[in-house]
Amino acid sequence: MAMFPLARVIVVVPIVFIPLFFELHAFVFVGIWFLINLLQGTVDLLTSSGAGVAWWAHIGGFLAGLVLAPVLKRPERFYRSYYSDEGVLGFDPGGRR
After folding, report:
1. What's the Cα-to-Cα distance from 88 to each of 2, 9, 44, 72, rounded to whole Å?
2. Could you tell me the pTM of the whole model?
3. Is residue 25 within 8 Å of 7, Cβ to Cβ?
4. How does pLDDT run across 43-65, given as a tens digit for each residue?
């Protein structure tokens, strides 16, 4: 999300045997994912269910990635040259269409 904030992801929501496909912005998907993990982690702290999932590790990894991604990103001058026929699904190296 930090490196490609306007990227879009395709989400599959299976309803019985019918898959529904949605295209969402990455920041919307990651925001929903973060809130679900935060809610589950809070519920796990307040109850003694102990499902065995490290919700707080997911949240810590998300925050570490959000903070460290811009720091660890290489400057564009160190990228190899980009050729026009290398585009993947119409995206350029900057994540733009």
Report:
1. 20, 14, 41, 23
2. 0.66
3. yes
4. 888 887 666 678 888 899 999 98
